[in-house]
């Protein structure tokens, strides 16, 4: 099976690197200094689960040199979604499945509209990983990939991806309710990203401070209310599930949005807390905590402010 990683940052670089290290046929689509480093030195993953170095990998900035593949990991930043779609055509064959492993809840509809429902699956990633420097992925927590068909039985390619994930020694889950899984992740991730970014803190200090923890819990409730107002059948245990997942994070776990904020990069804010606010307005739910997060971070949404 041939896999293309469209967006070779923290998520794509980590899971793609693990798959390549296990012997899967993986091509990374990257750009700039990261691409140059991948070509020159391969990919290094620094991880508490054990470092992995793939010295020789396939990497390009031109999808036309790759050709049709079986699965595309759609792992670009949310604000690069439209630009990435313009690169998709050379990767698409009659049976190609595109799986978005992004942070928001909008991409499945965007991909379905552009590519057709038969070519799109759902997906979500649980991982804390960033590009530490070109060619090096720093992984600090979690390594779970969840994916599944939008309806009906899973195509063979997704079953093969599940098996490859197990060979690569990460938690690969083929889901029968992927839309619920995507929203369950979003309810947690939107808050994790917003709270760590607003406070400029890793998760440890937020959990320990009573006032910050209360604010975080209120934001969880808001995200869950929005999902339920959208008729997403989240389980009755969702709040406890989010609480347990957050408690299991190492104290130093940081969101990718905090990493982007500190490096002066664009933020995915409009697709995280911003999306919670937008959808809440559509369904008539009050979300003051997420609205506060958006207000405080909005000056930085397009990158570093010139002083």
Could you explain how this protein is built, in words?
The strands form two sheets. The protein has a five-stranded parallel beta sheet. Strands 3, 4, 8, 9 and 10 form a five-stranded mixed beta sheet that branches. Strand 9 (about 135-150), helix 5 (about 155-165) and strand 10 form a beta-alpha-beta unit. With about 300 residues, it is an alpha/beta fold. Helices cover about 45% and strands about 20% of the residues. The protein has twelve helices and ten strands. Helix 6 packs antiparallel against helix 8. The radius of gyration is 19 Å and the shape is globular. The chain has helices at about 10-20, 30-40, 80-85, 105-115, 155-165, 180-200, 205-210, 210-230, 240-250, 255-260, 275-285, 290-295, and strands spanning about 1-5, 25-30, 45, 50-55, 60, 70-75, 95-100, 120-135, 135-150, 170-175. The mean pLDDT is about 95. It starts with a strand and ends in a 10-residue tail after the last helix. It has two domains: about 1-175, NAD(P)-binding Rossmann-like Domain (Rossmann fold, 3-Layer(aba) Sandwich); about 180-300, N-(1-d-carboxylethyl)-l-norvaline Dehydrogenase, domain 2 (Orthogonal Bundle).
- What is the average per-residue confidence, as pLDDT, rounded to a whole number? 96
The third-level CATH topology of the largest domain is Rossmann fold
Structural Rg: 19 Å
CATH H level, superfamily name of the largest domain: NAD(P)-binding Rossmann-like Domain
Distance between the ends? 50 Å
Q: Provide the number of structural domains.
A: 2
Largest sheet, in brief, is: 5 strands, parallel
Q: DSSP strand (E) fraction?
A: 15-25%
What is the overall number of helices? 12
Low-confidence residue ranges = none
State the share of residues found in helices, binned by percent.
Answer: 40-55%
Q: Element order, helices and strands?
A: EHEHEEEEHEHEEHEHHHHHHH
Indicate the overall shape. Answer: globular
CATH architecture of the largest domain: 3-Layer(aba) Sandwich
Please tally the β strands and state the result. Answer: 10
């Amino acid at each position: 099976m041939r896999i293309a990683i469209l967006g070779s940052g923290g998520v794509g670089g980590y899971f793609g690197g693990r798959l390549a290290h296990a012997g899967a046929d993986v091509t990374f689509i990257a750009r700039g200094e990261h691409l140059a480093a991948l070509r020159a030195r391969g990919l290094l993953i620094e991880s508490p689960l054990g470092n992995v170095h793939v010295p020789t990998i396939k990497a390009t900035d031109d999808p036309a040199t790759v050709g049709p593949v079986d699965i595309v990991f759609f792992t670009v930043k949310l604000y690069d979604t439209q630009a990435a779609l313009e690169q998709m055509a050379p990767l698409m064959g009659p049976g190609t499945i595109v799986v978005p492993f992004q942070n928001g809840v909008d991409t499945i509809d965007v991909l379905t509209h552009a590519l057709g429902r038969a070519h799109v699956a759902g997906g979500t990633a649980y991982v804390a990983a960033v590009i530490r420097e070109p060619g090096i992925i720093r992984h600090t927590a979690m390594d779970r990939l969840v994916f599944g068909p939008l309806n009906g039985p899973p195509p063979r390619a997704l079953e093969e991806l599940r098996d490859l994930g197990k060979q690569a020694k990460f938690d690969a889950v083929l889901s029968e309710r992927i839309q619920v899984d995507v929203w369950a992740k979003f309810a947690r991730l939107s808050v994790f990203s917003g709270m760590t970014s607003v406070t400029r803190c890793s998760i440890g200090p937020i959990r320990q401070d009573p006032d910050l923890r209360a604010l975080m819990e209120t934001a969880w409730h808001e995200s869950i209310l929005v999902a339920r107002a959208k008729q997403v059948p989240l389980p009755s245990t969702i709040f406890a599930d989010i609480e347990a997942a957050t408690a299991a994070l190492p104290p130093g776990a940081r969101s990718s949005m905090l990493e982007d904020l500190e490096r002066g990069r664009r933020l995915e804010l409009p697709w995280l807390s911003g999306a919670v606010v937008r959808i809440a307005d559509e369904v008539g739910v009050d979300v003051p905590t997420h609205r506060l997060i958006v207000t405080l971070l909005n000056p930085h949404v397009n990158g570093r402010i010139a002083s």
